[in-house]
Design brief:
This protein is mainly beta and 380 residues long. Among the domains are: 94 residues, no CATH class; 130 residues, Beta Barrel (Virus Head Decoration Protein, Chain: A). It is built from 1 helix and 26 strands. Strands 17, 18, 19, 20, 21, 22, 23, 24, 25 and 26 form a 10-stranded mixed β-sheet that branches. A 6-stranded mixed β-sheet has the order 11-12-13-14-15-16, with no helix packed on it. The longest helix has 4 residues. The chain is elongated and about 110 Å long. The termini are far apart.
Length: 380
């Protein structure tokens, strides 16, 4: 090996902190050959490196060193080097490294392009870690699948949790390259998206649909407007729409909010404002305030956020209703109408008088006193 072959290696250090710098400009060094080995000594820090050739690869390897600033060869293998074993920092191209390893220019991981869809070679965190970032460089993954070539895969517990494809797609839950889309969720228990805050979709799919879900989407939470999902535009559903709650309600302005708690029977007052009912067989009956008991509205129409003195009134479906049985005991199937008791219904004992004032049909019974019973809203 010719003298000066390693003139581009500069080893410098700071004795008080044990920092080491590897630079790529000419240092004041001496190079000698002793017993077939090349020995490089840096004059500035009095480091000495014993370099030999790997008999298998022909690549020069550091066999041993006497550097006082934190560079030493591994006692287990002559081809492993430990930088800053006594503390301090290591700099590549920098004489003042600020971290354990500071690189002044670029860092190339897996330059040989050997990654076939595994976490190694890649960037890992911790000892024997299964967490890190890797980039598949081979045409096929180790299991024969196409995988995410030339993209980035993010691992936890040895599994791909998120992938960024070279086309710009982002896939959560594993690598998936079957359909194009800016963000993909791979079905499975591990594919969960939790949004604390606001998520806005402004792009479109090839079908001009901002959000395309092939599978199940669950939204838990609310925006500042107390709604979990806001859609500005059209919604097209090719399957069933399933609502787990009960009635279809619409918000109305209410005159007496204090007396109109859920289950209250409401009638139309002046200027389309509703108020609790107060007389029998009132043809102005509009419905029942939704939300009593364990029933909640499945659909609320006419909702105006920020506008006070408005309540959802059940217009159809199942709802709990205030009933007064002092006028007649209520049985399942009885028609209900307004009663003299404010906000309460009663059995429509006189069908002719109750014509046009029927609220709905009783789904429960009440033999005496007042109470809440389930009712099927059917205005007639």
């Amino acid at each position: 090996m010719a003298d000066g072959a390693f003139d581009s290696l500069k080893v410098t250090g700071t004795a008080d902190v044990g920092s080491l710098s590897l630079a790529t400009f000419l240092p004041p060094t001496t190079s000698t050959t002793i017993g077939g080995h090349t020995v490089i000594t840096t004059i500035a820090c009095e480091c000495q490196l014993l370099i030999d050739m790997d008999p298998h690869s022909g690549i020069p390897k550091i066999q041993s060193t006497t550097c006082p600033f934190g560079l030493e060869s591994s006692p287990h293998s002559p081809f492993h080097i430990c930088l800053q074993p006594n503390g301090g920092n290591v700099g590549v191209g920098s004489l003042t490294p600020e971290q354990n390893l500071s690189i002044n220019a670029g860092l190339n991981v897996d330059q040989a392009s050997g990654n076939n869809g595994k976490i190694n070679p890649g960037i890992t965190f911790g000892s024997h870690s299964q967490e890190g970032i890797a980039s598949q460089r081979q045409d096929r993954r180790h299991d024969g699948s196409v995988g995410n070539r030339h993209g980035l895969d993010f691992y936890t517990n040895g599994q791909v949790r998120m992938s960024i494809y070279r086309e710009g797609w982002i896939c959560f839950g594993g690598s998936q390259q079957q359909t194009e889309g800016d963000i993909q969720l791979v079905a499975g228990q591990d594919a969960v998206v939790l949004v604390n805050g606001c998520m806005e979709l402004t792009g479109t799919t090839p079908h001009d649909i901002p959000l395309l879900v092939n599978g199940c989407m669950v939204i838990n939470g609310a925006t500042s407007q107390e709604t979990s999902l806001v859609v500005c535009g059209s919604v097209e559903v090719t399957g069933d729409v399933v609502l787990s709650n009960a009635d279809c309600a619409e918000e109305f302005d209410v005159a007496d909010m204090d007396s109109a708690d859920p289950g209250t029977v409401m009638v139309i007052d002046a200027n389309e404002v509703l108020r609790p009912s107060y007389r029998a067989n009132d043809k102005r009956v509009a419905g029942v305030v939704s939300g009593a008991g364990d029933l909640r509205p499945g659909i609320v129409l006419g909702k105006q956020s920020g506008k006070g003195a408005r309540l959802p009134i059940a217009l159809t479906g199942k709802v709990y209703c205030k009933v007064d049985a002092q006028y007649a005991a209520v049985e399942v199937g009885d028609l209900l109408t307004t009663s003299p008791t404010p906000g309460h219904a009663m059995k429509a004992a006189d069908p002719a008088a109750a014509f046009g004032a029927v609220i709905g049909k009783a789904l429960g019974e009440l033999t005496e006193g007042t109470g809440l019973i389930p009712m099927l809203v059917a205005l007639q």
